[in-house]
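Sat 14:20. Reprocessing the chain from the morning session after the first attempt stalled halfway. Input below, unchanged.
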Amino acid sequence: MMPAVRLDADSTPTSIPRRLRVLVADDEHDTVLTLMQLLRDEGHDTRGVYQGGEVMPALEIFDPDVVLLDIAMPDTSCWEVARDIRTRYGEPRPLLIAISGLYKQSAEQILGTMAGFNYYVAKPYDPAVLLDLISRAL
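Finished this time. Tokens:
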């Protein structure tokens, strides 16, 4: 997808960054609030949910470009949530990023077992890496 283009007064096209909608789903309230603040500081629109069962209703209302989904939420299987998202919306949107502090395996091993996720980020995450992955939704 091409970035948005703005015409300045002199009619010269200027690229401006596109504002993404990012849904953050994690049962740790501090993680949700921290990620939302990081993303808002970068100019993105964010919503947060604290239970896996809230993800699909939030998708209907918010229509995110990116979903950050903790894969170790206690109330539901987030692998099933990811499969449900892919079944309903397909590819390439929304970009699905799995986040978790429980898994110490390599990203390739994790992604090989998870249907529907595009990327995996281990906690504690590097904000620069996370923002780089999110920018791939542009």
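DSSP finds five helices and seven strands in the chain.
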